[in-house]
Amino acid sequence: MDQLPLTAVPEAAASVATGSGCHGGRETLDAAARAAGKSATMDKLAADYPQGPHDQPQSMCPAFGSLRVGLRMRRTATILSGSACCVYGLTFTSHFYGARRTVGYVPFNSETLVTGKLFEDIRDAVHATAKPEDYDAVVIINLCVPTASGVPLDLLPKQIDGVRIIGIDVPGFGVPTHAEAKDVLAGAMLRYARNEAESGPVARPRQMVDGERTVALIGELFPADPMGVGAMLAPMGLALAPQTPAREWRDLYAALDCEVAAAVHPFYTASIREFRAAGRPVVGSGPVGVEGTEAWLASIGRAAGIPDSVVDLAKQRVLPAIRGALAAAPIKARVTVSGYEGSELLVARLLSEAGAEVPYVGTACPRTEWSEADRQWLEARGTHVQYRASLEQDVAAMRDAQPDLALGTTPLVQKAKELGIPALYFTNMVSARPLFGPAGAGSMAAIVAAQTKGRERFSRMVSFFEGVGTPDGAGYGFKDKPVDPPGFRDRQRKLRAAKAKAEESVGT
Ligand code: SF4
Questions:
Q1: Which residue minimizes the CA distance to atom 8 of ligand 1?
Q2: Residues near 344 by Cβ (< 8 Å), separated by ≥ 6?
Q3: Residue 385 carries which DSSP code?
Q4: 190 CA distance to ligand 1 middle (Å)
Q5: How remote is the CA of residue 101 from the centroid of ligand 1, in Å?
Q6: Which residue, 38, 61, 81, 443, has fewest beta-carbon neighbours within 10 Å?
Q7: What is the pLDDT of residue 4?
């Protein structure tokens, strides 16, 4: 193809090129994307990932989720198309989290965006990258501005010399969290792989055992958790299929070939659609604590057509060990839970089973049928479950509940420290530990016990630093409270008023 059919609307492209993005306003960017021919994409994103109370991401750029999934896959190249500042932030974050892989980038300016040359640049980059000796797949991700400008990734070739080309739109004004952005790419890859498998023979998955019945876990889990879950399933004659998001292209075929898909993280809407299209039953919740594990094994057994007596055998193998681990390390504390990983309800269940009082759990992820059992279980025990929780709701709940420990996102933990409440980062501390089976039961109690002990120390710190770092007392090395230069604030106020008046008289 030599000449690009210019589907982008020039005025829309020009307007988004001039300083929109995270702060450009969701409605404006959504309207621009629709005017530029992306209505179907925006409708699909809105259906899969319903928006929450906040109209912009309150965590990192959502596209990080897709980028991370691409970067973690073997023989997969990932290319970003977006504003340089967004790409800088995403690349930095990827390497901060140890990507050790090249992030491709197709830059643009107002001219290449408006004329459609950006699409040609993307197409050239994809052709230059898609070498079958290096890659199985090339992923190209449209960030906010190219999506709002209608850069038509669907016009890229579907494959080049056998290398699959996957183009996705992951705008911050259409995908609310980075968790759901993982699903955008995972779902697109599963769809591609399912179509391949349905049209003819595909490469044999590396560790495939003929005739083995498997369960495909959906969600990025702590590395030891799948092993523990595999041991729980073994008495039922079930093994684990490769996880979603996958680590290698041919793993996608093995995952789709499962007996049952387990939506342990409940927000993978597009991926689940592909498992269902492949005729696989899907089970929600996860094997946390005694009751969670018992219910989950029963659901898996039912979906896989395993006789009750065999399921009971599997339960008898694992439940006493979980019960023992919980009894050995009971949690006596009030804990609030907030996060954007998608496992918040499972963590809250485990804490609750271990004896903690959990008045509030907030998740940035949406309500789906796959966490319904967890929601009901928690609410029956007096926990308030808040889907699509905003930071403001999380903070208000923490202030109200005055917990012994708050698990939460970075800004929530910062707020907790200011209030003298012990707090732990959900992503770095809770998600970096096992959650399932006896290992999960033991590890959660250990961190809660260690952190709640610090409450008295926190109170002392708060009183020691009282007033330091707040606006009028900010700074280091003052013996007394700093004094404003006389008349300074008054002069600044007058200057601002004069500037506003001058702008008003010029008009727009
Ligand atoms: S791509 Fe990400 S960082 Fe860039 S404007 Fe969109 S949401 Fe913000």
A1: 22
A2: 337, 338, 361, 362, 363, 365, 426
A3: E
A4: 25
A5: 21
A6: 443
A7: 36
Q: In which element (H, E) is residue 375 found? A: helix 372-380
Residue 6 in this model has a pLDDT that exceeds 50: no
Nearest C-alpha to atom 7 of ligand 1 is from which residue? Answer: 172
Candidates 81, 86, 145: which one to mutate for ligand 1, based on the most atoms within 8 Å of Cβ? 86
| pLDDT tier for residue 15 given thresholds of 50, 70 and 90 | low
Q: Please say whether the dihedral angle defined by the alpha carbons of residues 423, 425, 426 and 431, taken in this order, is positive or negative.
A: negative
Does residue 9 surpass a pLDDT of 50?
A: no
Ligand 1: centre distance to CA 503 (Å): 29
287 close to 232: Cβ distance less than 8 angstroms: yes
Query: Could you tell me whether strands 260-262 and 357-363 are parallel, antiparallel, or unpaired per DSSP bridges?
Result: unpaired
pLDDT, tens digit, 9 for 90 and up, residues 466-486: 766 666 656 666 667 667 788
The answer on pLDDT for 292 being more than 90 is yes
* Tens digits of residue pLDDT in 33-82: 888 888 889 888 888 888 765 555 577 899 999 999 999 999 999 999 99
Q: In angstroms, what is the span from residue 145 Cα to ligand 1's centroid?
A: 8
Residue nearest to atom 5 of ligand 1 (CA): 21
Return the higher-pLDDT residue of 505 and 381. Answer: 381
Phi first, then psi, for residue 237 (nearest 5°) are 75, 20
Choose one of 30, 144, 177, 184 to mutate for the ligand 1 pocket test, by most ligand atoms within 8 angstroms of C-beta. 144
Cβ atoms of 368 and 269 closer than 8 Å: yes
First to last CA, the chain: 42
Residues at CB less than 6 angstroms from ligand 1: 21-22, 57, 61, 63, 82-83, 86, 89, 143-144, 172
Residue nearest to atom 4 of ligand 1 (CA): 86
Q: Which two tokens stand for residue 131?
A: 């070498």
Residue 491 has pLDDT above 60, yes or no: yes
Q: How many CB atoms lie within 10 A of CB 446?
A: 12
The minimum-distance atom of ligand 1 relative to the CA of 170 is 1
Gap from CA of 171 to ligand 1 centroid (Å): 7
Distance of CA 274 from the midpoint of ligand 1 (Å) = 27
- The secondary structure element, H or E, covering residue 88 is helix 84-96
pLDDT at position 187 over 50 = yes
- Choose which residue among 49, 60, 61, 87 to substitute to test ligand 1 binding: the one with the highest number of ligand atoms within 8 A of its C-beta: 61
pLDDT of residue 508: 44
Domains contained in the chain, CATH given: 10-176 (3.40.50.1980), 213-323 (3.40.50.1980), 330-461 (3.40.50.1980)
Using CA atoms in the order 113, 114, 120, 121, what is the torsion angle rounded to 10 degrees? -30
Query: Taking all residues of the chain, what is their mean pLDDT, rounded to a whole number?
Result: 88
